[in-house]
TrEMBL record:
<feature type="region of interest" description="Disordered">
    <location>
        <begin position="1"/>
        <end position="32"/>
    </location>
</feature>
<dbReference type="InterPro" id="IPR011075">
    <property type="entry name" value="TetR_C"/>
</dbReference>
<dbReference type="Pfam" id="PF00440">
    <property type="entry name" value="TetR_N"/>
</dbReference>
<feature type="DNA-binding region" description="H-T-H motif">
    <location>
        <begin position="55"/>
        <end position="74"/>
    </location>
</feature>
<dbReference type="InterPro" id="IPR009057">
    <property type="entry name" value="Homeodomain-like_sf"/>
</dbReference>
<keyword id="KW-0804">Transcription</keyword>
<dbReference type="InterPro" id="IPR001647">
    <property type="entry name" value="HTH_TetR"/>
</dbReference>
<protein>
    <submittedName>
        <fullName>TetR/AcrR family transcriptional regulator</fullName>
    </submittedName>
</protein>
<feature type="domain" description="HTH tetR-type">
    <location>
        <begin position="32"/>
        <end position="92"/>
    </location>
</feature>
<dbReference type="InterPro" id="IPR036271">
    <property type="entry name" value="Tet_transcr_reg_TetR-rel_C_sf"/>
</dbReference>
<keyword id="KW-0238">DNA-binding</keyword>
<keyword id="KW-0805">Transcription regulation</keyword>
<feature type="compositionally biased region" description="Polar residues">
    <location>
        <begin position="1"/>
        <end position="11"/>
    </location>
</feature>
<dbReference type="InterPro" id="IPR050109">
    <property type="entry name" value="HTH-type_TetR-like_transc_reg"/>
</dbReference>
<dbReference type="Pfam" id="PF16859">
    <property type="entry name" value="TetR_C_11"/>
</dbReference>
Length: 215
């Protein structure tokens, strides 16, 4: 609140009415709560019933919201899946900093392994759905682009430590390090292998040190 300015011989201005504080904004509000309920329902419906069991009506019933609300905001199943992936990209995730390239890649791979082998696996379900839904495929592609961009710091730190040459292609190295996990666990549907993340990381590091990913 401003105070009235006074000067010798000049009357002070009359005090102003104190301004009313704006009502505190509720964090998120009703819209955020509705979004959370709906996307939680999408996740649960997807892992339990697959893409064929994922409908707007089923999601609305499961979330406890009116179906017109879901249709108005998300239009269809593709919109629901796209927003679920958008939500995943909105987190503050950052790759681990272990002090070595091998440690960083292994930590990243262990996170990927955990997400693909947990039961039920939302990540595996979303990958499967991306082959049947164009909006989901586009959203998943955007999600991976964001994740790989965030992970480029792993390679930048390795270059700064002198572990890798400056001309190393960060994206190529990261794809090579993580690809074996998706190949074995998603494409081949192999049994979970706790040693796979470390082996894949070690192979990628050896290749990078030999200049395999130089631009």
């Amino acid at each position: 609140m401003r105070t009235p300015r006074t000067a010798t011989g000049t009357p002070s201005a009359p005090p102003r009415e104190p301004e009313r504080a704006a009502p505190a904004r509720r964090p998120g509000g009703r819209t955020a709560r509705t979004r959370a309920l709906v996307l939680d329902a999408v996740r649960a419906q997807l892992v339990e019933h697959g893409y064929d069991g994922l409908t707007v009506d089923a999601v609305a019933d499961r979330a406890g919201v009116h179906r017109t609300t879901v249709y108005r905001r998300w239009q269809d199943v593709g919109g629901l899946l796209a927003d679920l992936l958008t939500l995943g990209a909105e987190d503050d995730w950052r790759p681990a900093d272990t002090g070595t390239l091998l440690g960083d890649l292994a930590a990243l791979n262990h996170e990927v392994h955990a997400s693909l082998t947990e039961q039920p696996s939302v990540a595996a379900a979303l990958i499967a759905v991306s082959f049947r839904s164009a909006p989901a495929a586009d959203a998943l592609r955007g999600f991976w682009e964001e994740r790989y961009a965030q992970c480029e710091t792993v390679v930048e730190r390795a270059v700064a430590r002198g572990e890798l040459p400056a001309e190393t292609d960060a994206r190529a190295l990261l794809v090579a390090a993580t690809a074996p996990l998706y190949h074995h666990l998603v494409l081949l549907r192999s049994a979970p292998d706790p040693g796979l993340p470390d082996r894949a990381a070690r192979t990628a590091v050896l290749a990078a040190e030999a200049g395999a990913f130089s631009r």
